[in-house]
Amino acid sequence: MTTPTFTPRVFSGIKPSGGLTLGNYLGAIKRFVQMQEEDFETIYCMVDLHAITVWQDPADLRRNTRELAAGFIASGISPEKSILINQSQVPEHAQLGWVFSCVARMGWMQRMTQFKDKAGKNAQNVSLGLFGYPALMAADILVYHATHVPVGEDQKQHLELTRDIALKFNHDYGVDFFPVTEPVIEGAATRVMSLRDGSKKMSKSDPSDASRINMTDDADAIAKKIRKAKTDPDALPSEAAGLENRPEARNLVNIYAALSDKSVDQVLKEVGGQQFGAFKPLLADLAVSKLSPISDEMARLMNDPAEIDKILARGTEQAREITAPILKKTYEIIGMVG
Ligand code: AQP
Fold this sequence. Notes:
single chain, Tyrosyl-Transfer RNA Synthetase, two-stranded parallel ribbon
């Protein structure tokens, strides 16, 4: 059998389960924007079906989906260069998701650390969807035969599962149909931590708003959150090794490096020896200068939700040109009579 060559294609998504955070921006969106300029077709998605794995108020979900689309566009994702969709409108995602639920093994799913973290002690009471969602995520990616997936560090295990599902499908049906996708986990801030607790990921659903920077926060809110961010009493080190065992300090330096497009070592050359009292205002100014233009543009776009809906409707048409033939072929391989 000859190995097929796959079109270099990027797929990634974000859940509209709340407002966009700095973690989403630095861990994912910044790289999404860059990949548009590289040698790839790019598809970016509001994964609304993933959002409902935990309860979402319908009006909030609608608003968050449009606001996320506005956040993508305001950050530099161009509807002319990328296909922009919300997942529920491209039915092949969910259809292939079911097939992959029948390929993935219970033991694989039970190893997913994100499920264990999110379910916590409440595992009997969370939705079945929360447990099974990595199989749908594999379908989101593979229904495009995507070859590359830019994500934050927390999604690494789910991408390994995606590779396992592709390999098992190909093996079980004796085909070379689904590509083995490459994760793209790059940059100085692939895991942005909570501003209140350096051992916890910055997350849009953290009950404490002070734990995160929202992309819609104004300059005062950003400055206040950074000023109050948890730190330790020592000065900043001059080399990255000095951040060992200092999770809060490392987090703030990583954020600075990612926002300024510098390496951590470069940043520490500039600010090593400073106390947080001096460093935090520098970080706040940098964050405001990078994020304000994005939040202003998001607000402008949100004044015209019909325009956002039009962009998503066009994206759906473009996406289905790719997904419908891939799903059809998958069904043929499996033995579904069409
Ligand atoms: N803190 C983070 N640092 C770096 N990258 C992050 N990502 C999320 N948080 C960070 C990356 O953003 C993309 C979309 O993630 P998501 O919103 O679909 O899901 P999530 O990772 O579960 O994000 P949240 O904020 O924690 O959402 P909730 O609270 O609703 O569960 C992914 O590429 C992710 O790696």
